[in-house]
Write a structure and sequence with these properties.
A hairpin with a 6-residue loop joins strand 4 and strand 5. The chain is built from eleven helices and 14 strands. The protein is globular and about 55 Å long. The chain has a domain of about 220 residues: Penicillin V Acylase, Chain A (4-Layer Sandwich). The relative contact order is 0.16. Helices cover about 35% and strands about 25% of the residues. By secondary structure, the chain is an alpha+beta fold. The chain has an eight-stranded mixed beta sheet with strand order 1-4-5-6-7-8-9-10, covered by helices on one side. Strands 11-2-3-12-13-14 form a six-stranded antiparallel beta sheet, with helices on one face.
Amino acid sequence: MDTLPADHFLVLDGEPRQRGFKHGTVFRSLIREHVRRWKNSIQSGRDINPEEYIQQLLSETHFEETAERWTPDVLEEVRGIAEGAKIDFSTILALQLMDEEWWWGFEKMLGKSISMPDACSGFGVNEPSGRPVIIGQNMDLPGYFDGLQVLLHIRQPETDHQELVFSAAGLIALNGMNNRGIGVCCNVLFQLNHSPEGLPVAFVLRGILSQSDYLAALTFIRNIQHASGQNYILGGPDYVSSIECSANRVVPLESGKGIRICHTNHPLVSDDLRFPGNTSNRLPGEIRTSLQNNQENSMARMESIERRVGSLKTFSLEGAKAALSAQDSLEHPVCRPYRGDKSSMTVGCSIMVCSDTPELIFAPGPPCCSSFQTFQFQQTSSN
C-alpha cells in the first residue's frame, strides 16, 4: 500500500479490555485474514496441523503467566481482541508470539527445511547540537503481512498518556512511541539464548511504551526476563540507547548524548549465544547454511545503514528516509519490496522524533516505494 488507508488507523481508549474489544471488532475481517494467512504459513512451512502446533506452543511455554506478571493490562487487551474478533483466546495469544514462535518452531523442526528471520534494520541518532533524538526502523516480515498494517492510537483512561503503535491487525505492537517522547524499535537476534519463562517481545514493546520517561523505560528493559533474543533501540527527548537482550543478559551497546547507533540482526556485544564456539557445527548442514546466509545478510545491511547514517554532517529526516530506503544490493537490501508471500518484505518504515512534541513519520510498506505520513499526538487539557 502507498499510504495507510484511513480505516487502518484506529483510536483506542477506555479500559484495557474495552480497547482490545474495539480493536477486535473494528478490524475483525482483517484479523481473521491475518489468522488465516498465519495458519497457512505454519502448515506449509512446518507440515503440521496449525491447531496442534498452537496448543503445543502454549502448553510448553509460560508466556501468559509472564505477561500477567509484567504487563497485565496488555494481556487484558489481548483478551478483548479475541472477544471482539470472535476468535478463541489461545489463537490470538499465540498470534502475539511472533518472535517466540520463530525460535520455538526452529527447535521443534530442527533438521527440516524451515525459514528463519533475517531482516529488520534500525538506527538511533542523538546529535550534540541539541537537535531532537531520531530513531527509525524498517520492519521486515513475511510478505503475507502486506495489507494487514495498522496504526493504533492508544489513550490511557484518566491520564494524558498516549501511544502511537505500528502493528498488524490483531497484534498488540510491532514498534511505536508515546507522547512523553519515548520511542522503541526492535531487531530480532536469533543467535542469542531464549527462555520459555520470559516476557515475549510484543509485550516488552508495550511495557516500554507504558512508561512515563526514558529512565523508567530503560529500567523496565533491565528488570524483566526476556523470552527472545532482541535488540531494542530506545529513544527519549535527551538520550538514545541500543540494548541487546536475551534470556540471561541485558547488555547496553551504546547510550547517551551525541551518538549515532545502528543495528540489524546479529549481536554486536552480547555473548549469551545459543550456539557458542563451534557448537553450530553439530547442526544439520542446511541449517548451518541458513544461519550463515542470515549473518551475511545482516552484516551487509549493517554496512549500508551505518554508511548512510554516519556520513551525514547533520542528520535529518531526509537522511533517515534515505538510509532506510537504500537498495545497495538486490540480495541484501535495507529496503525490501514485495516479492511474494513467502519472502520477507519491508511491511512498514517508522521514523520517530523523540522530542517534547513527538512525531511518528510512517510509511506502511517499503519506503523506497511508499509515501510517508506524519502522525502527532492529540493535545490534552491540563484541567
